[in-house]
Amino acid sequence: MPVDSFLHVSICISDPSQSVPFYRDVLGFEVEAEQHYSGPGPSAVMDVGDCELTVWLLRNGDQRLELIHFEKPESPPLAAPPQVNFLGLSHFTVGMKDPAGTLEELKARGVVVREHTRGNFIEGNDGFQFLFEDPDGLLIEAYTIPADGKLPY
C-alpha cells in the first residue's frame, strides 16, 4: 500500500514567539495559516488526552511544515539534547547555495550552529554541510546544493 503523497512534517514547539519567527524569518517559510484546536476530535487524534493546541501551517515552495504548540497538556522538555543517532526524527535537511554565507548569517542571528559538524559526506563535492538547531534544539542540516542542481539521491 504505497502512500499517495508526503504532506508535511509536524514539529512540536515550546515557545511560538521564538519558533514561528525562526521558521518564517530565518528559514524563509511563509505562514499560510494559524489554527487553534480543542475538544474531543483533536484530543483523540493527537492521543494526549484532553488537549488544546495551536498549529502554524508553513510553506516554502513545495515543502510544508506544521508547527504545533500544546497549551494543554504542555509538552515536556527534551530529556537530552537531540543527536542524529537518536531513534525517531534524526534531523531534516535544507538546501543552500552559499554555505559559508549561510553559516555566518545563522551565527549573526544568534542561531546555535554546530560548527564542529562542518564537512562533506563525499570528498570532492563542492561546498560543505553542517548542523544547526531550531529554538528547541531540533537538528537541521544545511546541505550545499550542487551547481548542477542534482542531489546525490
Rounded mean pLDDT is 90
Large-scale geometry = globular
Please name the CATH topology of the largest domain: 2,3-Dihydroxybiphenyl 1,2-Dioxygenase, domain 1
Strand residue percentage: 35-45%
Q: Please state the structural category.
A: alpha/beta
By CATH reckoning, the class of the largest domain would read Alpha Beta
Q: Taking strands numbered 1, 2, ... along the chain, how are they ordered across the largest sheet?
A: 1-4-3-2
In total, how many beta strands? 8
Detail the topology: elements first, then pairings.
Blueprint lengths: L8 E4 L3 H11 L3 E9 L1 H7 L5 E9 L2 E10 L19 E5 L2 H10 L4 E7 L9 E5 L5 E6 L9
Parallel strand pairs: 1-4, 5-8
Antiparallel strand pairs: 2-3, 3-4, 6-7, 7-8
Describe the structure.
This protein has helices spanning 16-26, 40-46, 99-108, and strands at residues 9-12, 30-38, 52-60, 63-72, 92-96, 113-119, 129-133, 139-144. The chain is of the alpha/beta class and 153 residues long. It folds into 2 domains: 9-72, 2,3-Dihydroxybiphenyl 1,2-Dioxygenase, domain 1; 78-153, 2,3-Dihydroxybiphenyl 1,2-Dioxygenase, domain 1. A 4-stranded mixed β-sheet has the order 1-4-3-2. A 4-stranded mixed β-sheet has the order 5-8-7-6, covered by helices on one side. Strand 7 and strand 8 form a beta hairpin. It is globular and about 55 Å long. The two termini are 23 Å apart.
